[in-house]
Specification:
This protein is α+β, with helices and mostly antiparallel strands. It has helices at 26-29, 33-37, 44-64, 122-128, 131-142, 148-167, and strands spanning 12-17, 73-74, 80-81, 86-93, 96-103, 109-116, 176-180, 185-190, 199-207, 210-217. Mg(2+) binds at residues 113-115.
């Protein structure tokens, strides 16, 4: 489902497609106890999402040469705590989980987000889109991308996931202006100061009922 071209060449990634309505706890139950403890009081659907995403992360780390790899715990604002010298990102949504990792000597920070390829409710669109982005959404919808607003949401989420490990600061939806391009790329221009980088570049795709966006800061 995920195309390797979404990520830098040094990356390793893994994903799973699951039953949307019936959570499978097997991956959660096989996690390290310290990982299980992070969501031990959550409902089964949350445990399944967490377990599957962490399983994907461990598979990707193994492909990167980290075997065995330590438990992936949680830092500020839920940020995954990756092993030393690793950058990465996780995502989970109904029926789909994924993770990507890369050597931090090649990639400083990464972001990955996936959502069902469905339009957002109108009230949500108005809360995430800047005026210039609204014009882009009209253009993309006219070109046949009915879930353009969901793509914008994913691109901003992936941007935030790459931004936070670099800054340890919140980034609101109105603090980045995303230029979505029909060729499957986007640029998120950061409107806050100070910033370690002026923009964060990304790639996107729509496949098998999902919108997927990824970002990387080299």
């Amino acid at each position: 489902m995920i195309d390797a071209q979404l990520f830098p060449p040094s990356s390793k990634f893994c994903y799973v497609v699951t039953d949307r309505d019936h959570p499978d706890l097997q991956n959660y139950l096989n996690l390290h106890p310290l990982e299980q403890a992070l969501v031990s009081r959550a409902v089964d659907i949350r445990k399944a999402e967490f377990g599957d995403a962490r399983w994907c992360a461990h598979q990707a780390l193994h492909e990167l040469g980290h075997s065995p790899n330590p438990p992936i715990l949680r830092g500020e604002r839920g940020m995954p705590l990756w092993p030393k010298n690793v950058a990465g990102s996780l995502t989970h949504t109904k029926g789909f989980r994924a993770a990507v990792v890369a050597p931090s000597s090649r990639v400083l920070s990464m972001g990955l987000d996936a959502e069902p390829a469905e339009p957002l409710p109108p009230e949500v669109v108005s809360s995430i889109a800047r005026p210039g982005e609204m014009a882009q959404l009209l253009r993309l919808r006219a070109g046949g991308l009915d879930c353009a607003d969901r793509l914008l949401f994913c691109a901003k989420e992936a941007t935030y996931k790459a931004w936070f490990p670099l800054t340890r600061r919140w980034l609101g939806f109105d603090e980045a202006e995303v230029d979505l391009r029909e060729d499957g790329t986007f640029i998120a221009y950061l409107l806050v100061r100070p910033t370690p980088v002026p923009f964060i570049a990304g790639r996107w795709m729509v496949r098998d009922g999902y919108v997927i966006a990824s970002t990387a800061v080299n």
